[in-house]
Amino acid sequence: MNDRKQKAEKTVTLSMRVTAAQAEQIRIAAAAAHLNVATYLHRRVTDRPIISTPRLAMLAELIRTLMRLEASHEPVPELLDALRVEIAQLSLVPTEPGEPA
Question: Is the pTM of the predicted complex or chain greater than 0.90?
Answer without folding.
Answer: no
